[in-house]
Amino acid sequence: MSKEVRVGVGVIIFRNNRILLGERIGAHGAHTWATPGGHLELGESIEECAIRETLEETGLVVSRIKKLGFTNDIFAAEDKHYITLFVIANCEDGEAEIREPNKCLQWQWCALDDLPEPLFLPLTNLLQENPELK
Questions:
Q1: The pLDDT of residue 1 is above 50
Q2: Which of 1, 33, 51, 92 has the fewest CB atoms within 10 Å, i.e. is most exposed?
Q3: Burial bucket for residue 35 (CB in 10 Å: 0-12, 13-18, 19+)
């Protein structure tokens, strides 16, 4: 199989000055904390991907999606390379549910100045490149 760069979409949901993070399990980024998100599918808009992945993973319905930025993420140990497109999405109510228990152990609302460790590489890169987010 040929190596390729994949495109991921990360969805940052703010509520009460906190962001929603999930503890990843499984092979890719296991035991790190990440926003909802996933692979951009062929023919899908970034906004459609953000809505679909958030619903699949958390049961939450997001709206008013704004593009935030992107990161270039090289997972050397896993021999994977991603471009992650980050968006900010609105979600007024509802609580995140674990809809994919094989991929996520728990969801938590986290203060930006007190984030759990370790963070998923794309989120680490985003915060390093955009210190104003913290």
A1: no
A2: 1
A3: buried
Q: What are the residues whose beta carbons fall under 8 Å from the beta carbon of 38, sequence distance 6 or more?
A: 8, 9, 49, 53, 56, 57
Q: Alpha-carbon distance 96 to 59, whole Å?
A: 6
What is the domain partition of the chain in residue ranges?
6-133
Q: Please give the model's pTM, rounded to 2 decimal places.
A: 0.95
How many other CB atoms are found less than 10 A from the CB of residue 39?
13
CATH number of the 6-133 domain: 3.90.79.10
The values of phi and psi at residue 72, to 5°, are: -110, 110
- Residues 99-112: tens digit of each pLDDT: 999 999 999 999 99
**Residue 70 contacts by C-beta under 8 Å, 6 or more apart in sequence?**
83, 84, 85, 86
